[in-house]
Write a structure and sequence with these properties.
single chain; 501 residues; alpha+beta; three-stranded antiparallel β-sheet; elongated
């Protein structure tokens, strides 16, 4: 026919992209981090030694795929007898071990919290078995089905493969594939549906969300989370070492303002003495909670920061946060909210940062401070939090994220009904935090607390949160927001994504 047979050029590693060049050459980009240019022009060809080295690399990679791991590689694997010392990170995770001088593959079971042996790691030699024509090896593990997957990447298509065994939950195989290739979590259902279609696995493992399938009695573990829900309150406290020095500086600053009477300064001093007495902290009483309202009434808004700082320390004291002081704390919190309408709150980070810390500590403090803050939550979110989501100050961002976190913990622990909690407003603000470019401002501790807040709310109010989250496209935002941070934060993002499904 006059049409030349296409030429096949093997590579030692996966090729992610091929691009034609204007002069008739073409280049390839592989996952070994190398870009190679191929040409028919002799004056542009690499040296004989370089071409031979490339051919040797390809031959070695091919032999390795066919022959399985070498003795040296097996020797580096952890011993199967010690598998209990290595904990898996996700359902279906594959880990290689050495057992009796051979390499074996095992999968992590979240339900049993153990590694389950899959079989010996072999080469790519094919063979018969339960998978028919699709059976084969993938990454040293034999599967009943090895299926092609096309992934769009920067305008080109990357060809990948996914392994699946008969009787396996398609979602487990899909999650394993997502983890291996670091793909966005929202591909999970799409990949699992594809596996079901290609393998006819609909009669096997139940599919998530299929109401026609009865709940399984064995074999399909329930979702378990390590990072959500948030289980305890966080607080902004003073270390024992710095307490005395910090409180003395507050007292000096209040005296410099010259706005308080001698009697009020004596009351401040008495309160500070109680807070300093860490060795008998829980046996002390704080009766004069009204001092904070007096301070905020007497000081100019721009001078209020020592009063807010002192209040955020006092509200953690178990006696100060008692129910008998609830009405007084409610008045203090309302005065703090009013500060956000004053220009002084925009002149620097002190007022918003210390107000957020006061509100966050109030939720940890005790029943009195919690009761005082509860009717003000929506106002705090709307008037105080919302305008500072994009703050340029990292201490403000961390204080705000901690307030979010403690609000979610309180809502879940107290069992607040959804009608008494501003879910839609809360998720709208969290959505703004998780949207680019805002999320790029958030350091890891603040981002982790934001994600845990969202996850905790999703588990506390699943129906309401999923409805709002769907409208805000929250599920597609959580993993990108965590992408620049550690594996722990990324794992938390995956759990939040799962909770949103």
């Amino acid at each position: 026919s006059g049409v030349a047979e296409p030429q096949t050029i093997l590579h030692a590693s996966c090729v992610w992209r091929v691009e034609p060049l204007p002069n008739g050459d073409f280049c390839t980009a592989s996952d070994d981090g190398t870009v190679r240019i191929f040409t028919r022009a002799s004056d542009r060809m690499a040296t004989t030694e370089e071409r031979q080295a490339f051919a040797d690399d390809v031959a070695a990679a091919t032999a390795k795929k066919q022959g399985g791991p070498s003795a040296e590689e097996i020797a580096k694997l952890p011993f199967w007898e010690q598998n209990h010392e290595k904990r898996g990170t996700s359902e279906g995770q594959v880990q290689l071990f050495q057992k009796g001088g051979i390499a074996i593959a095992a999968q992590w079971s979240t339900a049993s919290q153990t590694w389950i042996e899959v079989g010996q790691v072999m080469g790519n030699a094919g063979g018969g078995g339960g998978g028919g024509e699709n059976e084969g090896m993938l990454d040293g593990v034999r599967y009943d089905h090895v299926l092609p997957v096309e992934l769009e990447n920067a305008g080109s298509v990357v060809n990948l493969k996914i392994g699946y065994n008969n009787g396996e939950n398609p979602f487990t195989a899909a999650q394993r594939f997502i983890d291996a290739h670091m793909l966005p979590q929202y591909h999970l259902s799409q990949i699992a549906d594809y596996i079901q279609q290609r393998t006819g696995s609909g009669g096997g493992a139940p599919m998530l969300g299929d109401a026609s399938v009865p709940p399984p009695t064995t074999g399909v573990p329930m979702a378990t989370y390590q990072h959500i829900p948030a289980k305890h309150y966080l607080a902004f406290e003073l270390s024992v070492k710095s307490a005395s020095t910090t409180l003395d500086k507050m007292k000096i600053k209040l005296a410099e303002f010259n706005k308080l009477s001698d009697a009020q300064m004596d009351r401040v001093g008495a309160l500070m003495d109680v807070i300093k007495a860490t060795n008998r902290y829980h046996s002390c009483k704080i009766e004069d909670v009204m001092i904070f309202g007096d301070l905020l009434n007497n000081l100019e808004p721009s001078q209020s920061f020592p009063a807010l700082d002192l209040a955020r320390l006092a509200v953690l004291h178990p006696d100060a946060a008692d129910t008998r002081h609830s009405a007084i704390w409610n008045d203090v919190f309302q005065k703090a909210i009013l500060l956000f309408g004053d220009p002084a709150s925009k002149e620097g980070p002190a007022i918003p940062m210390l107000s957020f810390r006061l509100f966050a500590n109030a939720l940890k403090g005790g029943p009195g401070s919690q009761k005082a803050l509860l009717p003000l939550m929506e106002t705090i979110l709307n008037v105080c939090a919302k305008p500072h989501v994009q703050s340029s100050n990292k201490n403000v961002r961390l204080s705000l994220a901690t307030l979010f976190y403690n609000m979610a913990v309180y809502a879940k622990m107290a069992g607040l009904p959804s009608t008494n909690f501003p879910i839609e407003l809360f998720l709208t603000i969290l959505s703004e935090v998780l949207t680019t470019p805002t999320f790029k401002q958030y350091e890891e501790p603040a981002m982790m607390r934001t994600l845990q807040t969202l996850g905790t709310l999703c588990l506390a109010y699943p129906a309401e949160c999923k409805m709002v989250a769907k409208r805000l496209f929250l599920a597609s935002k959580v993993e990108p927001a965590a992408s620049a941070h550690s594996s722990t934060t990324k794992a938390a993002a995956k759990e939040v994504y799962a909770a949103l499904q």
